[in-house]
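Async update (no meeting this week)

Hi team, since we skipped the sync, here's where things stand on the single-chain job. The sequence we agreed to prioritize is pasted below, unchanged from the tracker. I ran it this morning and attached the output directly underneath so nobody has to dig for it. Comments welcome in thread, and please keep replies under the output.
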Amino acid sequence: MPHITVQMYPGRDDTKKKKLADELVKAASAALDVPEKSFSVSIVDVPQDEWTEKVYKNAVDPNNKTIYKRPGY
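Output:
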């Protein structure tokens, strides 16, 4: 606890994904006052042509009340 899931277009290598995970944990740990060792992070590559169906309709939809930062598109 807590778990962070990132969904994004493919194209980043494992080094960049690891850096992102480390930075997210660092920021979330500070914001939530929870030790870094308590976090887990998963990164899911979603092809662009599947984004609307797999991500937008399920997570980013404007009616989703659990989203705290909305995209600008």
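Quick observations from my side:
Strands lie at 3-8, 40-45.
DSSP finds two helices and two strands in the chain.
Reply here if anything looks off.
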